[in-house]
Amino acid sequence: MGNLKRIDRSSNASRRVRAKRSRNRGVSLIEVIVALAILGFGMLGMAAAQISSYRFSDSSRERTLAHGLAQQQLEIFQSMSTTSIEAAILAGTTDPLNPIDPDPNDAAAMAFNRSWAITPDTPEDGVYTVQVTVNWTGNAGAQTVQLETFKSEF
Description:
It is a single chain. The chain is rod-shaped, with a radius of gyration of 37 Å. The model has no long low-confidence stretch (mean pLDDT 84). The termini are far apart. The longest helix is centred in the middle third of the chain and has 51 residues, at 29-79. It has one domain. 10% of the residues are buried. It is of the alpha+beta class. It has a three-stranded antiparallel β-sheet, with helices on one face. It contains three helices and three strands; from the N terminus they run αααβββ.
């Protein structure tokens, strides 16, 4: 009988060891929930970054289009003769094509307004200061791009 008791004791000990091992084997429900919460916060952060990136990209596109419209008008004024510049001063300061949609095939219709100011004899005699301004309302609200150049009579 002494032998049987010894077997009984070792049997109880092995059961306790097995029970302890089975508790350590898997992942608890709380660990899974914590891991999912961390993953969820990370995914929310990535989604917010994507949305922000899209907004910045859209704003950059608008600014590029506006800059191109202003540059285009400056080049037109640079190619004009002095007589044509004088006529442009008398004609007005607003583009008759306003509102301008630089990309009419695009689904997102944009309305840019272009205007200019030509100041003769500034900064010195025989030099015109030409300033072109493009205004629009985009995703970031009211925006303005303004370019300036000088044109000599000679």
